[in-house]
Each structure stands twice: as structure tokens, then as C-alpha cells.
Amino acid sequence: MPDWSRDRTLAVGGFALGTAAALVAIASGLGARPSQIGEAKAASATLTRHSVQFGRAQVGVEHRPNGISCATVIDGGTPARSCLGSLGSQSITYAVTDHGIGGLAGADVKAVIVRLTRKGTVWATIREGAFYAALPADYRPRRVIKVLRNGSQFGFSVPTI
């Protein structure tokens, strides 16, 4: 058999096998019920929201399908919002309003302490993964400290507004 004939036979055979594989893939995809595809998308795209009340204030909690977690603090003034790419068990995210500071705390966070201007300190109340602390009049937060269950503490400077 000449070389060109063998090459042509291999090319036609490879094309036939590739076409057969493509047909099998398409046929198996067509065999899936549309409801199964929709259910899978819906399961992976679940957005959860709830609010946690702290007296007159509330912290809105939002967990997005892409892993981002957001807190919206509403306490009578201008609402404030903060988001974190991934809320781990030792993470916090916080937002400051004119009247308070609130946010989200991971499961291993046992306390949130807010250091204020003029040597003040307030401890936030933690409930259902959210926290809030009212600010006394004429005080501003200057540092937020998270205390973990193992006793370690980590502080964050609060930017001035």
C-alpha cells in the first residue's frame, strides 16, 4: 500500500472516531433532564440573607454564592456596609456608622472589643455570627480587637471618617 493511502486511511479513521465520540457526548448531554440542570445551578447559586437585631440597631447578614459575606449596619443614621471575600472561623468584618460599629464574626471569635477616642472602650454583643456596639456620644472608634476562643487577640486600626 502506498504511503499516501495509509495516511489517508488513518486520517479518515481518526475523523470517524472523533465524530463518534462527539455524537456520544452530545447524546449523553441531551439525555439529562432540564430540571436536573436547573436544580444544580440553583443549588450552587444560593444567596442567604437575614437580619440580627441589637436593640434599635440591626446588622443585615448576606452570604453570596461566590463566598463573599457582607454586613450592613442600620442604627438610625446612615447605613454602613462591609464585605469580606471569605469569612473564615477566625475572621471579622466591620462597618462604622455615626452611632455604632457592627459586622460579622466567625465561629472562633468569642469577643469584639472597640477602643474609642478619649480612652474609651466598649464591648460588642455577638449574636448569630453578627456583632454590634453602640458608640457613646462624642466618641469615635479608633481600634477593633477580635478575641479568639484560644485567647489570642488581633487588633485593627479604624480609619477616620
What is the ordering of alpha helices and beta strands?
A: HHEEEEEEEEEEEE
* Number of beta strands: 12
- Identify low-pLDDT runs: none
User: What is the oligomeric state here?
Assistant: single chain
Residues in helix, %: 10-25%
Q: Sheet bearing the most strands, described?
A: 4 strands, antiparallel
The number of helical segments is 2
Could you report the average pLDDT, rounded to the nearest whole number?
Answer: 85
From the spread of the alpha carbons, the general shape counts as elongated
The Rg value, from CA coordinates, equals: 28 Å
Distance between the termini: 85 Å
Across the major sheet, the strand order is 1-2-3-4
Structural class: alpha+beta
Number of domains: 2
Strand content: 35-45%
List the SSEs and their pairings:
Elements: H1 3-30, H2 34-44, E1 48-54, E2 57-63, E3 69-74, E4 80-84, E5 92-96, E6 100-105, E7 109-116, E8 121-123, E9 125-127, E10 130-134, E11 141-148, E12 153-157
Could you please describe the fold and organization of this structure?
The longest helix has 28 residues, at 3-30. The radius of gyration is 28 Å and the shape is elongated. The strands form three sheets. Strands 1-2-3-4 form a four-stranded antiparallel sheet, with no helix packed on it. The protein has a four-stranded antiparallel sheet with strand order 5-6-10-9, with no helix packed on it. The protein has a four-stranded antiparallel sheet with strand order 8-7-11-12, with no helix packed on it. It is an alpha+beta fold and 161 residues long. The chain folds into two domains: 3-43; 46-157, no CATH class. A hairpin with a 4-residue loop joins β11 (141-148) and β12. Helix content is 24%, strand content 42%.
